[in-house]
Structures are given as C-alpha cells and as structure tokens.
Amino acid sequence: MNIYLLSALFCLVFLFATVELIRRRKLQEQYALLWLLLGFVMAGFSLFPQLLERISRAVHIVYAPSLLFLIGLLCSLVLILHLTIVISRLHRRVTRLIQELALMQERERRGGRA
Amino acid sequence: MKLLIIIPAYNEEDSIVRVISSVNVWREDADIVVVNDGSTDRTGERAEATGKAAVIHMPLNVGIGGAMQTGYRYAARGGYDVAVQLDGDGQHEAQELDKLLAPLLAGEADCCIGSRFLHKTDYRSSWSRRLGIRFFSWMVHWMTGAKATDPTSGFRAVNRKVIELFAADYPEDYPEVEAIVLLRQRGFRLAETSVRMHERQSGESSITPLKSMYYMAKVSLAVLMTRLRGEGGAL
C-alpha cells in the first residue's frame, strides 16, 4: 500500500464524513464548502499522482508527496483563518444581542413600575 | 438640554451608591443610568435601591466597551443631547462635571475628555502606567494630529452626534484610546479639560503585568486599524 492509495482512501472517507455532517445539519453548508474543496483537491492529487508529480517537478520539489503535505497545510491555515473570522462575527452579534436584551429588560421593568 | 450620565459598573458595590449620590448632588438635572456589567456582587441591587438611577443589567459580562455602548444606545433612544461617561469605581469627581460639559455647551467641541495631565493635579500613579499613557498620547498625535494628554481617561462628555456614532460603533475592550481615533477619523472636534481624579476607592484594578502587555498590543493594533479604515469602516 503506497502513500497515494492511503491518502486517496483517507480523502474519500473525509469527504463522505463531511457530506454526512452536512446532511445531519451538524455542519452548515457555508462553512462546509472549504472542507469539501480541500477534500476534493487532496483526493484528486492522490488518485492521479502523475498530476502531482508534474507540478512537483515544475516547482522543484524532489519528493512529490511533500507537495501534498504543503497543500494540506496551507488549506488548513486558510480554514483556521476562516474560523477566526466566523468567531469574530459571532462575537459581535452576541454582544449586540446581550446589549439589546439588557435594554429591553430595563424598559420592561420601568414600564411595569409606572 | 437633556443630559445623561452613564456609569459603567462591574463589581463596585462599595462605591456605586456614593458615585450616584454625588452625581445627583452636583447635577440634579441629569438622568443617571448605571450599566451593571454582569456584576457578581450587589452592585445592581444597591444602584437600584438609590432610586435615583435607571439600572441596565447586562445578563452576561460583556466588558467595558460593550457595557459603555449599551449606555450610548440607551442615550440614543432616550433622545439625550449630551451624555457623560463616569466610572462606577469613584475615581471620577462629579464635581468636575460642569467643567467637562462647558466646551460642549459652548458648541466648541463634540467630545470633551477629562484629563489628569493637562495641568498639574495631585493625581499620582506608577511610572509604568504614566509611560503607557504617554505612549498612547504620542500614538494618537502621530495617527490623527490630535492632542490628547490623557487618552485612556474614561471621564468624557459627548454631544448628540457622537452618541449616535457610539450607539452604532464602539470599540470592544479597552475602548478609550480607540474611541478618540475613531472620533478624529470621522471629523469630530475634541477638547480636553483638566480634572482631578482619585486612585480607585475600592474594588480591584483589572491590570496585571500580562494584561498590560495585552492591553498595549491590542490598543496599538486597534488604533492603527481604525486609522487605516479611514472615513468608512462602519460595521
């Protein structure tokens, strides 16, 4: 069993898991797109090593599978960045919600008293 | 003129009542709103018991920026012409309110900041804190050309236009310095007035060495980013 086969198998399982997570609504489509993209790219390279080797030669990488690692690593970085963007947005929304809730409760208490 | 005094308070049960009464003594015409930022002590109950202040209870602690903005949103909806922010820990003197309001009432400024360092006052603090304040003062001047001798001061008065801006857009944590740059960026006029301040009377300051490093880095980055955003940059 060589690294390409292993990698291809892993990618297929990974893709399947991602789709399953979307189907069960554990993962929203807008956040799943990047994962699917990563899965397809990695699966493509694993299934067609010639493609990977040609690109590796073009950018002077001697050991072709290391290009696979590089792509995986870079995609992971993009994914993490995307996550922190999502968290920042969530954070802002939660703060706004708490503020509005507090203001509403204050209004309600005052209304109750008057 | 409808005047609102916004008092952010997080675990200030020992000082909050005194702060409210003192504001009430010096500016009887002002409405007071205490923003109780998820205190775990009796700050909220004590503030309510005075009967002189509206109290907004944040259901969760959102930090000083989020709490202040709640006060500004309250001011915006209540139709207030001028809002003053004054800390709940007793370090700001209600006695100085008139001085702080003067430039706004004269129409000379949109925001007036109470400064400990404009003229010599009896305020004392550690050299490291003074160095930090000096640094931000320099940074604000470098970024915006504005003179702010005490950019971290949370004792400030703003007019209606600024209330509306802050209700929509106010920095999250450690907001003071960033807010100054934001105001300058939108073309608002700043003024400073010399005020006396106390070291906090009770409770604990939130600054530890590690936190101050985070504070310096975070605020510097935020100031730089606010500057880069230019006129736009609304959320």
UniProtKB/TrEMBL annotation, chain A:
It holds the Pfam family DUF2304. InterPro entries: DUF2304. Keywords: Membrane, Transmembrane, Transmembrane helix. The chain crosses the membrane at residues 31-49, 61-87. This is DUF2304 domain-containing protein. It comes from Gordoniibacillus kamchatkensis. The lineage of its organism: Bacteria, Bacillati, Bacillota, Bacilli, Bacillales.
TrEMBL record, chain B:
SUPFAM superfamilies: Nucleotide-diphospho-sugar transferases (SSF53448). This is Glycosyl transferase family 2. It comes from the Bacteria. Residues 5-163 form the Glycosyltransferase 2-like domain. GO terms for molecular function: transferase activity. Keywords: Transferase. InterPro entries: Glyco_trans_2-like, Glycosyltransferase_2, Nucleotide-diphossugar_trans. Pfam families: Glycos_transf_2.
